Fold these 2 entries.
Entry 1:
Amino acid sequence: MQDPSLLRLVCFITAFILCALWEHRAPRKTLTQNKWFRWGNNFSLMAVNSVLLATLIPVAAFQAALIAEQNQWGLFNNITLPFEITVFLCVVLLDLAIYTQHLVFHRIPLLWKLHRVHHADLDIDVTTGTRFHPIEMILSMLIKVALIFVLGVPALAVVIFEVVLNVSAMFNHSNARLPLWFDKQLRKVIVTPDMHRVHHSVIVKETHSNFGFFLSVWDIWFNTYRAQPKLGHDKVSIGVPEIRDGKEQRLDKLITQPFRYNEKPNN
């Protein structure tokens, strides 16, 4: 299987354009900050992450899957199942792993300081789905590579999962409106923008809920699901209580935030 970098890039650009147009045509919530200032810094952070990952971790998820297959490492390389079922199970298990990782990054104070950069965005829109601290991105990639080795995830499953993860992150962070009846049905299976917006509420109990990125069933099954923000989607305040200065949205501030704010998460 060929390197999927171009496919991922095309899917990313397509999903971003569609979600950005959707936000523009049917906004769910009035933004409070300068959009272009936020977008510029969020995308700059994404660029820094891309360079660091390419430089520091030469074995990315796709290459890890090829290595695992060549050496017959991992569970699914040592059991006999139809290939389609293996791919399906691996995509589901990787999504469960992302849910678990997300919950852990909220529960452990040191990891929360890193993940809080994502939550410190004072608005939530399609670019928030790309905004993560570089150290968190490196840790996430290392965890993903280790899991691929342990499970023996096929390369095709890795490609499907990474495309789904990128697209769903932009979809569920979108500041866009779905018909309420459709949202109600869709969130039974996948995370919708209204469902994930609760997770970005400044209210602590809401921040520590709705951890899913793609499948919503994990929150429902593991009792971390919260249906709506207490103040409603129009009035919910986005972000974290201790970081409210608009200057903290600058790239240099985003990178240094974990080392300048010491507040621990409240469970």
Entry 2:
Amino acid sequence: MAWTYLFIAGLLEIGWAIGLKYTEGFSKLWPSIGTVLAMVLSIAFLGLALKSLPVGTAYAIWTGIGAVGTVLLGIVLFAEPATALRLGCVALIVTGIVGLKLVT
């Protein structure tokens, strides 16, 4: 279950990172509520995963999922650049996530 909790925590991190853009500096009520809720739930699921996973591994994977998902959604939702170098760096993060999963 720990890996499932960690994956959910990572997805929620993507949600709150993207949600921050929609809050417009926390000036919009509903996006702000959704963002804060995603933050709290993300930390809660990370905490559940940490019951049985090493903290370094879990934290790195949590932030990695969040970083990769946020970059990809930034490209799709906000027309951020999708250069080869940028995507190559994202691939390196994914490689690190997979590597940590395999050795844990």
